[in-house]
Specification:
Arc Repressor Mutant, subunit A; Jelly Rolls
């Protein structure tokens, strides 16, 4: 028998900040055959990220909502932007680019710093999340090449290519330009929503009412629904359902627990409804999923 309390996982608004190379606030990592991992849990970071997908399909969630990813897509993750994946359909190959904008900062406040670097760091300029642009792809490949080969002067080449990358993104892929007031409003909403998300993560197996969540956030029900959808890209009900399916995926790794036990432990009162929901989210039944992870 599964105890739901043992499933509580404090995966809240996790913030990843460290870039390991001292003196070089930029990192490139090639990922192969990825099926799960912390980068796909709900989190955010201060630096700008690009994920250049080369193999596999998945579904990501950013401020623009649900995003279907296929080979050739580039996912741009803005500074401070919450993102996660609710299903990895198959193993993924991709190149992960992490760029701390301090890498491009000037010693003096010049036009580049004032007009572009600082607004990006302050979340006043938001890029489109999903793009397919051969110029961006080529630039990312050149960055990866310089980073990995590390020929003499590679730091200068990386800084120049990073500026080239930002130039293309600023000219062709800006989603929104915010005022400082608007950016502060969004930050304030996230602060209130953080408490709600923590509660939902902890009590995912319980019956949770919408008015209860709205009160927790200090908002009216209708306004809360709009804010939740705007910031997470899904409704509170959809988010809770995904959390339950995530937990179910973890539990299905233990073959000693029946499908019904897994369903009840994850907040589903009906195992048939659980199976239908699981298939809708993952593309396979719980039985099929369990068989696949044990082959």
């Amino acid at each position: 028998m599964i105890n739901p309390a043992s499933l509580v996982n404090e995966k809240t608004l996790r913030k990843y900040t460290d870039l390991p190379t001292e003196g070089l606030p930029l990192e490139i990592v090639r990922k192969h055959g990825i099926v799960s991992g912390p980068m796909f849990d709900r989190h955010w970071h201060d630096h700008l990220q690009c994920m250049y997908f080369q193999k596999g399909h998945t579904t990501m969630h950013c401020h623009t909502g649900e995003i279907k990813i296929r080979p050739g897509d580039i996912l741009v993750l803005n500074c401070g932007e919450l993102h996660f994946s609710d299903f990895l359909g198959e193993p993924l190959d991709f190149i992960l680019f992490k760029l701390d904008l301090s890498f491009l900062a000037s010693a003096m406040m010049d036009a580049c710093q004032t007009n572009y670097i600082q607004p990006l760091a302050d979340n006043l300029i938001l890029f489109q999340n999903k793009i397919r642009n051969p110029d961006v792809a080529t630039c990312l490949e050149e960055i990866a090449k310089e980073y990995e080969q590390r020929s003499f002067g590679f730091e200068l080449a990386l800084k120049g290519l990073a500026c080239q990358l930002l130039t293309v993104l600023l000219r062709k892929h800006v989603e929104q330009v915010l005022s400082p007031t608007k950016s502060e409003q969004i930050a304030s909403r996230w602060k209130h929503l953080d408490k709600v998300l923590r509660y939902m993560d902890k009590h995912f197996a319980d019956e949770i009412h919408l008015d209860e969540l709205a009160k927790m956030a200090g908002m009216g029900t209708n306004y809360f629904c709009r804010v939740f959808l705007q910031l997470t890209g899904c409704t509170s009900g959809e988010y809770l359902g995904r959390q339950r399916i995530h937990k179910a995926q973890e539990l299905l790794g233990n073959e000693e627990d029946s499908i019904s036990e897994v369903a009840f432990a994850c907040g589903f009162c009906d195992s048939n409804y659980f199976s239908r929901t699981f298939r809708k989210v993952t593309g396979m039944t719980p039985t099929e999923y369990r068989a696949e992870i044990h082959t």
